[in-house]
Structures are given as C-alpha cells and as structure tokens.
Amino acid sequence: MAENVKPKVRVPKSASAGEVITLKTLISHPMESGQRKDSDGNVIPRSIINRFTCEFNGETVIDITMEPAISTNPYFEFEAKVPEAGTFTFTWYDDDGSVYTESQDIAIS
Amino acid sequence: MNKTGLLMTAVALVASGVWAQDDNQLVINGEIEIITDAPAPEYISGLDTIYSGWRFRQPAMQQLEMDDFENPASLAIDDAVEQWSMVEGSEGKSCASCHEDVEDSMAGVRAVYPKWNEGAGEVRTLANQINTCRTENMGAEAWKYDGTQMTGAEALIGMQSRGMPVNVAVDGPAHETWKKGEEMYYTRYGQLELSCASCHEENYDNYIRADHLSQGQINGFPAFRLKQNRLIQTHNRFKGCIRDTRAETFSPGSPEFVALELYVASRGNGLSVEAPSVRP
C-alpha cells in the first residue's frame, strides 16, 4: 500500500490552435518492484503504478503500461498537439486499486 | 537555452576539456537569475574567482536545476511546506504561527547564515536556529541535525533567498569562530593527509578519479545528490569529505563543523543562494 502519493503536472496555461506543447508529469510513489527482500529475508510485495494515461477532452493522448523496473517517483514528459481549448486529464492506476487523477485546463490564445 | 547554444557549448567543452570556465548561465524557472561566478572575497588568498558547483556539472545535470518541476528536490520541498504549518509541541504552534508566510518571512535568511547570535553568544547555523525555535518557542522536540525534516526545512527556507548574494559576516563577534573555520580548512586530516584546500582550492576543476572537483562552495546547499537520491545537508557533506580522507570525522552540528560552515560559506560571499541545487 503506497502512502503519500502526490501527482503533479505541468501544462501551459494557453497555446495557439494546432500548437505542439510539452507536458510534464511527476508522481511520488515508491514503485516497489517485488524483487527485493527485507532484512528478515521475506519478499517485499510488489507495489507499483501499472498504468498511466493522459486524455484531452476525452480523447486518448497517451496510454502507458508501466513495469516494475521503473524507478521511484516516475516522471513522464511528452508532447501533444492542441487543436482547441479544453482539459487534459492525467490518470495513474496503482497496484492496490487506487486511482490518482489530476486535470488542467488549457486556453487557446 | 536553445539547442544550438547547448551544442556549441558542448563543442567548446570538448575542445578545452574544461567545464568550469564555460559560459552557461543559470536562470531558474526562466526568471531567477543566479550568479555562478564572482570575484573572490579579499580574505581568500588562494582563489581569484569563485564558481558555484553548478558550473562544474555537465549540461544535462545543469538542466535539472533550471526548472523546479524537474528538480528532484521538489518533492522534499512539498513535504516541507506541509511541515511549515504543522502544529507541534506543548505551545500548540507551528512555524507559520509566528513566521506566517515562508515566502515573505524567510526571504534573505539563508544568505546571512551562519551568523552570530547575540543572546546565545555563539555562531549559529540555520539548523541550530530551527532547533532552538522548536525547543524554546514551540515546546517541540529538536530534530536530528541532518535528518530528513531538518534538511527539508532548510531547503524550503533557503529557497526563499534564491538569487540573493551570499553575505555572511566574517568580522565582529563572529570573527573568532571564522578564524577557527579557516584553520580547519587548511588543516590536513586523515591517513591521506588532505585538507579541504588540497582538493577545492589547489585542484578544483581537476578530476579525482571520476569526480570533477568543484571549489566546494555551499551556496547550493542543501543539495539534492543524485548519488544518494535525497537532499544532503552541508554538515553531512563535510562529514563525507573528511571520512574520505580516512580520518575520524566530527559530528553534524558539532562546534567544529559550525565554524567550518561559517568559513566555507564566507568563501562564497558574492555567489547567489542556489538551494536546493542538484549535484551528482
């Protein structure tokens, strides 16, 4: 069970129609791989974020399957074309069933 | 910086084999301009120009510090912001109860620490002062000198002075402590018989095995060290350095390290406060 998970995103406040913008996302998460053992030799159970998605006005921008080898506090940076004003919604899916979401609006200037 | 600029810098670096004298400018979040080189203060005889450790890093690492979103210390800062208004101790107070908004009340504080405390009759570091506040004003337990909470709080407070020049006082009542720090700086420690100056004054910009030696400036501390994957405090780094000379080290928070911190901070008078910086 991951504690103190905080997503952060950076989306520009505005863009011109058709512009390609850079999106940055970070989530604090231990990403326990399930390969490690504690001091008593017991396996520490896997606890990772296994999927990350980004949608723009309901349309998928990116959909990522995440694997145990990804480091603590996963950071993603990617680009998207913005045809119109709207909302980016970012969603992280945890192994324990938790879902973390964050959304941010973008205006057309 | 645009890509062409980076590329040209890279070419120049390969040509000269020197990082420290490159012309990269540090601007954080596109707005806070950081002074990364300055004339050495007159009491430093061994250096002409002082350079921030940032100038010795490779461009990809330099980049991490230029945007708070990419700075890995940002998570620790978020925790410290929460801690700032967390009520603790018998007095029912948090930091915010007295100091209110950290951005206003702590601007410029990092730049002048360590500094002489008239009431206590001693030189105090920022961490000393935070713990005094906790025990005397909040009735809370003191934090471990170089623990996570202390280092986070120091980073948060340090951040409010970013871009302001370091300006610690070396004269007046602090002078005696400063002198002790200077003596330590030039004293050879350990089986390897190395002083701070052996590496950071006489050999900065050279390599010690795979490590590129900087001048050991502490204007960027607490620094996020990628090697340890967490924020590292000045005294913690001092301890690591002395240990590497194969000596018995002093403890974080000891009077010896407080004196050394004052002296080393004064060697950076004129550079901008850069905390929390990103270092290898």
Largest sheet of chain A: 5 strands, mixed
The CATH topology of chain A: Immunoglobulin-like
Number of helices of chain B: 12
The level-1 CATH class of chain A = Mainly Beta
Radius of gyration of chain B, in Å, reads 19 Å
* Estimated radius of gyration of chain A: 16 Å
Report mean pLDDT of chain A, rounded to a whole number.
93
Unreliable stretches of chain A, pLDDT < 50, 5 or more residues? Answer: none
Overall strand count of chain B: 11
Describe the protein in words.
The complex is a heterodimer of chains A (109) and B (280). With 109 residues, chain A is mainly β. Chain A has a single domain (6-108), classed as Immunoglobulins (Immunoglobulin-like). Chain A contains no helices and 8 strands. Chain A has a 5-stranded mixed beta sheet with strand order 2-8-7-4-5, with no helix packed on it. In chain A, strands 1-3-6 form a 3-stranded antiparallel beta sheet, with no helix packed on it. The mean pLDDT of chain A is 93. Chain B has 280 residues and is an alpha+beta fold. Chain B is built from 12 helices and 11 strands. Chain B has helices at residues 3-16, 59-64, 74-84, 95-99, 102-105, 109-112, 126-138, 148-159, 175-185, 196-200, 234-244, 255-266, and strands at 26-28, 32-34, 37-39, 49-51, 115-117, 122-124, 207-208, 211-212, 223-225, 230-232, 277-279. In chain B, strand 7 (207-208) and strand 8 form a beta hairpin. The longest helix of chain B is centred in the N-terminal third of the chain and has 14 residues, at 3-16. Chain B is globular. The two termini of chain B are 21 Å apart. The model of chain B is unreliable at 3-18 (pLDDT under 50). Chain A binds chain B through residues 6, 8, 10, 24, 26, 28, 72-73, 75, and chain B through 69-70, 72, 74-75, 78, 229.
